[in-house]
Specification:
heterodimer, A: 13 strands, B: Ubiquitin-like (UB roll), globular
């Protein structure tokens, strides 16, 4: 079966049996099993990448299905990596697929990368890209970047053959709320498929040493007019490898000091009997799937200072999926509620899922 | 001078591209001057921590010179995946 499976690409001049052997020896980590992670991992698996790792702590939601066609309505509520591992194994039983049902953390990423030669970024969080960039620089391995905004996409290959990194392009991590995400902006189903397959292509070029890799080039794609352009950018010698400090990859809330709080600190305060209100600012369908105990749901878009519940409490704690929308909630209400202190639980539901899956 | 807008800069400005007439563009001698001009016109641009600028499809820094015929791109990081 293996002999004929790759026949068509082995026939291809410039790829050949050598290209196939290099794919079979390759170990690739895909970070994220969502809109980008699905096409990236499906093509890398189908083409015969020998070892494929996929890391994501998210579960399949109904609102994912229009752009993540590996999942079906029957998979809703399941861990994405578990479903995807099964799908990929059925498609190509000859390769090794490792599923990590968790989110990438500063304390673990360095060890995890020891087992891989290349990383493909398929995350939907900017801080994770800074973490990946720093970790890949420390480990000396390249990573394939892909990201979306509305009808646009960006693709590049960072830290490849002494080439520039993500920090060379975007030196400073944005603050919470600065750059909207897909949950806020929406996304057209096919766009992550296009950007993800471009990423899979770059991964294959890096692994097989063919063609011209997007090293030092940022590809900008616009789906509405089908325009693609590449921007050349150099390595910035001022960007030096840095330690993977656990606190360096949280979104910094721009609503003043003292308002960001960790989930464990919140839980301690709650256990201490502090009078407070806990507000989940995610969309109703996200809330209905799972939420923290005692939380009320007010989606960020509906948040107003004259909410009746806000009048009866000295402390309001906001949380969302990843700390971005909750920081925006603080920002929006800052100075509008007399005698009330606002907090944003920085890690959001991400940490909660990681801490204890039984709680939800 | 033509300024192409990507990501959130397009949302802030409300257009895919801006055309700056030669009279105004002539005053903008460097990338830094153009950024200050645009931030004044669109204050929300000032809130971006990282904003890459390309001149004629090559990355540029604030001190790089500009010509009235240049095509500039404003490129912020984008989040989705």
């Amino acid at each position: 079966m293996t002999g004929s499976r790759y026949n068509r690409q082995q026939k291809l001049q410039g790829f050949g049996p050598e290209g196939q052997q290099r794919l079979e020896r390759a170990r690739v980590l895909v970070v994220g099993a969502g809109g980008l992670g699905v096409p990236v991992s499906q093509y890398l698996a189908a083409m015969g990448v020998g070892t494929l790792g996929i890391i994501d702590g998210d579960r399949v939601e109904t609102s994912n299905l229009h752009r993540q066609p590996a999942y079906t309505p029957a998979d809703v509520g399941q861990l994405k990596v578990d479903v995807l591992q099964e799908v990929l194994h059925r498609q190509n039983p000859d390769i090794t697929i490792r599923a990590y049902p968790e989110f990438l953390e500063p304390s673990k990423v360095s060890n995890l990368l020891l087992a891989y030669d290349l990383v493909v970024d398929a995350t939907d969080r900017i801080p994770v890209r800074y973490l990946l960039d720093d970790a890949c620089v420390l480990r000396g391995i390249p990573w394939v970047y892909g990201a979306l905004h509305g009808f646009e996409g960006q693709v590049s290959v960072f830290n490849y053959q002494e080439g520039p990194t993500y920090r060379c392009l975007f030196p400073k991590m944005p603050k919470a709320g600065e750059i909207p995400d897909c949950n806020t902006l929406g996304t057209l189903g096919v766009l992550p498929g296009i950007i993800g397959t471009l990423q899979a292509l770059e991964a294959v070029k890096v692994l097989c040493g063919i063609g011209e890799v997007l090293r030092g080039k940022l590809l900008l794609y616009n789906a509405l007019d089908q325009r693609m352009q590449a921007i050349a950018f150099p390595r910035n010698p001022q960007q030096q490898p840095r330690r993977l400090d656990a606190n360096a990859y949280q979104y910094v809330a721009s609503c003043g000091p003292g308002t960001g709080i960790s989930l464990s600190e919140y839980q301690e305060r709650k256990a201490g009997g502090e009078a407070h209100l806990l507000v989940d600012v995610r969309e109703p369908e996200e809330f209905d799937r799972a939420h923290l105990p005692d939380a009320i749901n007010i989606p960020l878009g509906n948040l107003k200072p004259d909410q009746p519940e806000f009048r009866q409490t000295p402390h309001i704690y906001f949380y969302c999926k990843s700390g971005s929308r909750s920081a925006q909630a603080c920002q929006r209400l800052e100075g509008l509620l007399d005698g009330v202190t606002l907090y944003s639980i920085e890690e959001g539901m991400h940490t909660f899922f990681n801490l204890d899956n039984e709680k939800i | 001078m033509k300024v192409l807008l990507f990501g959130v800069t397009r949302d802030i400005v409300g257009e895919a591209a801006l055309s700056i007439p030669s009279a105004e563009a002539g005053e903008l001698a460097t990338v830094g001057a153009l950024k200050a001009f645009l931030r004044h016109r669109y204050p929300a641009l000032d809130h971006l921590s990282s904003l890459a600028v390309a001149v004629n499809k090559a990355y540029a820094t604030d001190t790089d010179p500009l010509d009235t015929q240049d095509e500039i791109a404003l490129i912020p990081p984008v989040s989705g995946g």
